Request: fold
Amino acid sequence: MSDRFAVLQLDDLPVRHCSCGTTRRGFIAESEGQASVHLLQVQDAVTHHHRIATEYYVVLAGEGEIELDGVRHPARPMSAFLIKPGCRHRAIGDLTVLLVSLPAADDTDEYFDA
Reply:
């Protein structure tokens, strides 16, 4: 590991459950919390939003939809979505997504409608 770069294998990271299914999160510590990269497998995603984080979704595999503020958008490989703070969102379908979060993912910045 260098102080100028970091390398990881996303599919070797531990799996953790999240509001969208399962995820493997990388580069949180290495970026000092400035960003994180996730390998997300969508499963039973729950609508939520963030007050701080901006997220970028890039669909790597599968077909489905990304719901943004109640509007569903088709999602297939190489579809990309910019999700700004306050946008209620969820992924629907059998999707594998590369997700970039700025700043890094923080479970305390996840809000659900009651």
